[in-house]
Amino acid sequence: MKNNVFFSILFFAISFLICIQNVTSQTLSTAITLKVDFGSTTPYVNSECGGILDSSDTTIYPPCKNFKDAGNRARQYLNSGLAIPNSNYLTISVINTAITANIGGESAQLGNLFGFCTVDILIATTTSRAIVDGTLSTSHFVSLQEPNVPNTSYQCSSGKTLRIRNIEFKNWGNQTIVYTNLNQVFNILTKQSIYFTTVYTWFSNSIINVQPKGTNFEYGSVFFQCSGGYFNNIDSSLTLPPFNFNGVNVAIIGSRFLNSTLNSSPFIYSNIGFFNLKATIYIDGVIIHNGHPFVKTLNVGDNFYYTGAIVSNCVLSKFLQHENNKINAPRESAIQHISTINLINNTITSNYNDPTNSFFSFQNYIGVSYALAFDSIYSSGNIVLGQNKSFISNQNSNSTSYFSETPSDFQIGFTTENSHTDILYSSVLSTIPFVGCNSIFTFSSSGGRIIANTANYNYCGTCQIIVDSDIKYDNL
């Protein structure tokens, strides 16, 4: 009996020492780098490529030949027990851009990389771009999709970050290139950041789709920034916009949207978040049918900016449609800055199914207060089709507005409904008619600006018009 006990203890002791040896022979790590070379001919099996997973491993692994193998290799790391929970970093580096990727189907897809806290997909040299052809793709290029079963080990100490740099996507058709489906109830562990830097797309109709996990999502839980992007040759009848954001703070900087046709959606949709479109945005040759705007925002909060945009050779009815249908949306007291917009050689259509029929539309929950600033709007060679097309419409709000003169291309400068609009330092209505229904206008002649032309009052039906505290017209 004693011998049995002794041998049992000895067995467990040896087993424990073996386990300790196996653990200490491997090294936990916070980061791995995987190399991809589309022209590599070095064979490998089971996606054992790209680089080491364990810093104590001295094996020299060949570069991965495609993104599918790189994604599989990354998931081997997550499943190996080598990754430090809550803080791990993946870099996927394309090292040979001289070879155009001749890959199709799943080979162009990294797959779901949710388990990583930071994913950096880039080109080894900053002077070139890698071309990724998605002609035969069956799913997303990359996704961050949270499992259905909550697991706190998936949470990252500083949230999640995805960066894509110097990648050119071609022929992805209706497949979404970047898709996220994550918990967006905001805290430091669940916040997310997505960065596009010099990302180009051609013939790809769904560029990014940010969807929350579950029905609850909050302002500020996701940040998206795109700088230096080129988005070309979209031809889409999808109801899903090419850029679809939910609960995202959006900043699109110095990017181009070119030679595209959309039949059933806006180009950009942002729901519950902040929105900025700025720093010389170039929009050329874009055709948007069926009254959809270029940008549609719903319940965005804080200040948002549309500055430094050139819109040329486009056919569309509306540039911006903003709606606020929530009483407590954090958009109250926000300032919308619309400045330095150049409209050149566009055909601006009328949409009679849209009661506002305007180029810039603000539709609000009744009584919401905000400031609206329009400045430096330039127009040349545009054709405005249809009757009673207005440049700006404002519904159901109390707003303080700052305007320069609206383009003379439009039959109506400003139209309001169920609103009180305080127009400061403005010549916007000096020559172009304004229209109002159940609305109050107050004007100030401060700063030497021209006040409203009284000849335009007859366009205002049920209105009250006050100029420098003097009631000039009252038909409420």
Give structural attributes:
34 strands; mainly beta; 8% helix; 476 residues; 3-stranded parallel β-sheet; 11-stranded parallel beta barrel
Please, could you describe this protein's structure?
The chain is mostly beta strands. It contains two helices and 34 strands. Strands 10-12-16-19-21-24-26-23-20-17-14 form an eleven-stranded parallel barrel. Strands 22-25-27 form a three-stranded parallel beta sheet, with no helix packed on it. The termini are far apart. The model is unreliable at 9-26 (pLDDT under 50).
Summarize the structure.
The protein is mainly beta and 476 residues long. It contains 2 helices and 34 strands. 42% of the residues are buried.
Helix content: under 10%
Strand order of the largest sheet: 10-12-16-19-21-24-26-23-20-17-14
Q: How many distinct beta strands? A: 34
User: Uncertain regions: pLDDT < 50 for 5+ in a row?
Assistant: 9-26
Structure annotation, total helices: 2
Give the mean pLDDT: 82
Largest sheet: 11 strands, parallel, barrel
Shape: elongated
The percent range for strand residues is: over 45%
Radius of gyration: 28 Å
Question: What structural category characterises the helix and strand content?
Answer: mainly beta
End-to-end distance, in Å? 104 Å
